[in-house]
Amino acid sequence: MTESAFIHRFEPATRAGSPPLLLLHGTGGDENDLLGLGKMISPGSALLSPRGRVLEHGMPRFFRRLAEGVFDEADVRRRAHELGDFVSEARQRYGIGAPVAVGFSNGANIAAALLLLEPDVLAGAILLRAMVPLSDAPTADLAGKPILLLSGQGDPIVPAGNSARLAALLSQAGASVTHRVLPAGHQLSQADVTLARDWIGNLEAKAA
């Protein structure tokens, strides 16, 4: 087992043409958390779902934080590179293409960090309730990379200005960003599922 190995679940694709998904859970979740969501938004996709390797009061996360909304940015960088290594190894092991990340909360934040630090690892991303992961983000080349950012209007954890800043940061790096603010809080709603499913459907249609 290599240093970059994560406890994870993998479910092979059952339909050709569906993009593989990298499922990244929120704080306190695990490798089983988002499998149902993955199947709802892209039935037939290969699903790669790792468990975060950082524990906060016994709850798995993908990186350390100093307080709510205050990240240990050195740890964000280290953990993003670890996750990138894991995805590269999993791609070889399971024979899948570059995945589209589907991240919720802490998982969305590590996906955003991965986009900025290792742009080639992901084919795109669905970021659910994400924040800017790095205050001094590197200049990444995300030319044309599709990203769906779904924020909650009443989210007590992610300030509206922060998610707007993330959308701008990714757009400036060249990504094709769709940012929608939903009448929701931090938890996911049916609207998130519907928008994510339609967005993936459009990706598939363009790739076909």
Automatic annotation (TrEMBL):
Q: Does the keyword Hydrolase apply?
A: yes
Q: Care to name a GO molecular-function term for this sequence?
A: hydrolase activity
- Offer one Pfam family short name for this entry: Abhydrolase_2
Question: Which residue range or ranges hold the Phospholipase/carboxylesterase/thioesterase domain?
Answer: 21-200
Residue ranges of coiled coil: none
**Claim: Amino-acid biosynthesis is one of the keywords in the record:** no
What family does this chain come from, according to its entry? Belongs to the AB hydrolase superfamily. AB hydrolase 2 family.
Keywords of the record, alphabetical order, are: Hydrolase
Q: Which InterPro entries match?
A: AB_hydrolase_fold (IPR029058), LYPA1-2/EST-like (IPR050565), PLipase/COase/thioEstase (IPR003140)
Kindly give the PANTHER family that the UniProt entry links to this protein. LYSOPHOSPHOLIPASE-LIKE PROTEIN 1, LYSOPHOSPHOLIPASE-RELATED
Q: Output this protein's name.
A: Alpha/beta hydrolase
